[in-house]
Amino acid sequence: MFIRKINRESERKSTGIAELDVLLGGGIRNGHILLLIQQENVRYHIGIHRIFISNGLQENDKVIHLSMDNPILSIPSADAAPSKSTACSPKERIAWRYSTVSKISNTSAITSHTLYNMRVQHPKHNEVTNIQEIKDLQINDKNTRLSISSFMSPLWDMTEDDANNFFLSLRQKVRSTNSVCIISVPVYLLQDIMYGYFDYIVELSEPVEGLKYDGVLQCIKTETHDRHKYGVVCSSTGIRIEKIVLPPEA
């Protein structure tokens, strides 16, 4: 098992998922926003938010969660897992490519250095600031970690102009406070939204029939420019991301 560390000198924060950090280029840069595009029927984005928040609590960050659909999340406890000297680095695992493919079930697995107990609340879960109204969002502390889930769903009752104005304001707040943000938005609500508001864009899709995954992840905009598709595995110890080979029709 490898250990993936985020270099604080590079001013990045971990998502809490080592494989996702690698795909982003080493985590989320301070002052940057990661957009998770939820394809139809995708629900595992909530797990990404939960782990992102848990990692923030572990790092003693100021953590804010904004949502009308999921206003209070169960934040998993986190424990560092023992490392093995024989393990490959995450970059080596991500960069691995198939030379011969015989079955679509072949994968390149990458294992995170942190194990989460998704069934047990983090001991500091009460330190998360949970809000439901945009008007209540205030980012006053430097290096705040902001989670916004299922933004613009029907519960938000927002117009496209409202959303674009919010994204512009959000970008300014995140930049000025050197904070980081993960925001998830249902895909059907993004048609007239300017993607330039976001520094990273990752698409989350439903699982492919015949493959034992909870979903498929593809980076649209990251520093690594990796456009391969990855399998997402959700378990009681967190989220794992694996390189997969999809059937031609997928």
TrEMBL record:
It is found in: Cytoplasm; Nucleus. The keyword Cell membrane does not apply. GO terms for biological process: tRNA wobble uridine modification. Gene3D superfamilies: P-loop containing nucleotide triphosphate hydrolases (3.40.50.300). Pathway: tRNA modification; 5-methoxycarbonylmethyl-2-thiouridine-tRNA biosynthesis. It comes from the Eukaryota. Keywords: Cytoplasm, Nucleus, tRNA processing. GO terms for cellular component: cytoplasm; elongator holoenzyme complex; transcription elongation factor complex. Belongs to the ELP4 family. This is Elongator complex protein 4.
